[in-house]
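Why predict the complex rather than its parts? Because the way molecules touch one another can change local conformation, and only a joint prediction can capture that. The input here totals 556 residues.
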Amino acid sequence: MGSRSSHAALIPDVDHIRRETGFSQASLLRLYHRFQALDREEKGYLSRLDLQQIGALAVNPLGDRIIDSFFPNGSQRVDFAGFARVLAHFRPVDEEDATIRDPKQPEPLNSRMNKLRFAFQLYDLDRDGKISRNEMLQVLRLMVGVQVTDEQLESITDRTVQEADEDGDGAVSFMEFTKSLEKMNIEQKMSIRILK
Amino acid sequence: MEKGLSGLRGRVFELSDVFYFSKKGLEAIVEDEVTQRFSSEELVSWNLLTRTNVNFQYISPKLTMVWVLGVLIRYCFLLPLRVTLAFIGISLLIIGTTLVGQLPDSRIKNWLSELVHLTCCRICVRSLSGTIHYHNKQYRPQKGGICVANHTSPIDVLILTTDGCYAMVGQVHGGLMGIIQRAMVKACPHVWFERSEMKDRHLVTKRLREHVADKKKLPILIFPEGTCINNTSVMMFKKGSFEIGGTIYPVAIKYNPQFGDAFWNSSKYGMVSYLLRIMTSWAIVCDVWYMPPMTREEGEDAVQFANRVKSAIAVQGGLTELPWDGGLKRAKVKDTFKEEQQKNYSKMIVGNGSPNLELD
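Output of the joint prediction:
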């Protein structure tokens, strides 16, 4: 056990990252090794290309959008802190976390709200806080490829937007998004168990 | 995929569907099946080689002493012995095959060339301290057949040729490899290709077919994965070798990682440093299983046949099976795989005709 810390000391800013993401020491170490394995040229950061090399991600219809979420604000590099921050959204929710949390602290990254926010920004490309009909269409198109005609896709989109849209502005805001998913077990659907 | 998307056929699209794909995507980022196959296997207990000391941090003074002793033995005693042996083996091979190549074609020539090949390969394997167990020798590849095996390193060739002669297939190299190749082809017909010819798949298939058709020629040795994998799994078999026809003799090779890691990580190590690492390990211990011959069945295409052989080899060698292409470590994945996923998803939300769309 004592020997582990000598490894963790290699991670820059490890305490800060641990507090921000809530990962355990072991998970953080595991992610750090993974980060290094993906960073084949040992640059110290990951580029879009490094993530695109992952086969299972490249065949994922939403692969590009997922990769984009690692590079907010037009940056082209993600360091380990940024990497861990995105993955923290998928940390399973601890039962105790919810009750003993200090309300003055910022919400943990893997809270229900933040998980929903992550999903929301996969739709909301222009980051205007609303999913327009067009953005919904784009995501649907990514997920079905060429298998579905435009008309079918548009009617599916229209139906979905109508169902979720409450204030009638033709777009789904984050609040409307959250409301339409309030019955869904987000904590379970957006958690990766091995990231405990 | 259906299970992940709340398992109803003909269900409609929902906002939450994006969760399924994003979770899958991030799972792949945390750990994917392919990348881990291109690094050396992790050991359960340490085998006193620094290179495998990834997880074992705490080393007591006693262990350090043992380790130092190990280093001394490996570098000062075993290494020079092995290098000498290797040198002798390779020189004998070149000289022997050149001499045999001078003889006119006859049965004696074939017999002599086999003798030379076998002897020199055995010397070379000794130079790596190789201990090989052959199982099911009755299924050893016959003349006019194609031998197919999983690929871990160039040493695989040595291991297989110690027990029988094969015709090899490969690119013409320069340097020492080139000399060896040219010498070998004098004694018995191997199939060496120029780099430019390799790109022409039809030419390759044609030449291989000619070789196989001649029942007197030695069985061809092919590694359908196309690249070195770390011996924990078998990746996609390229269908080219399975289109030639003829009988396929599958062979499974499994190395014991406790004595030395045979995997050649070609992006990390060059040939010389790889050989050096092999020669300073304890030994190369491996099992070779010969398997009953397989032929392509009626109505089976090359891809299905390749997968069938791949499964058989994986089961025999105790390796896991992966559908991914080994070439992924260098190139990007084909779009056809993404289309598969898209097709599956579309079928679900639109699939059963248009009942979902008749809402108004």
